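hi! just following up on the protien thing from before. the input was this:
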Amino acid sequence: MIPQDYTVIDLEMTGLHPKNDAILEVGAAKIRNGEVTDTMDIFVNPGRKITQEITELTGITDEMVKEGLSPAAAFHKTAEFIGDDILVGHNIIFDYSFLKQQAVNEKVPFEKKAVDTLKAARKCMLRPEKKSLECLCDYLDIEREREHRAIYDALATHELYQYLQKTYGETNPEVFEPKDLIYKTKRQTPATKIQKIHLKELADYHKIELDIVWEQLTRSEASRLMDKLISQYGRCPKD
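and the predicted 3d structure came back as:
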């Protein structure tokens, strides 16, 4: 049976890689019998500055996420909202990979089934040629109040899913069968005390203001940041 009860979800992130990038915004809507019954839209403080490219794409600024939830708190709030629901999303494995990474960091299970509207559109629709959410919304006249903002993209994905399953559900029912989401990753460990000391010494010596949340800094992030600063400014002289 094609799911009519589900949670549709969309995330905005600082980049494309769950191990190196972070969630900025989570938008989700709970659907019952094909209708929206509840929504959630939260900002997440990524613990780093947002690049100009991401701000231009999403409209999300450092000031907007400054008072946002921590990545851990945002994950737990999202997981609670989803509950035992099937997920629906456009290229859902991409959004899931960021949530799964945080789940692994938190040492909690997060196994889900989902229907992917991107895969469904590619299977069922000849046009438009590109199957991005933007192109499909334009083609089907699905309105979004703002593009690349999580809640509006989630609601647009819900409308897209309803169109796809009503139009192609009888001829391609297998496309709408929820599939297990599989993304394997390793836990990101917190930065060590020594890493933080060296990073602060490096920043102080070169008079660099680091706009990071020290409590959220991971070992790999600290290592990459130190390498970047040394590459740009050089090492601290030894005593």
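The chain has a mean pLDDT of 94.
The chain has two domains: 6-180, 193-233.
cheers
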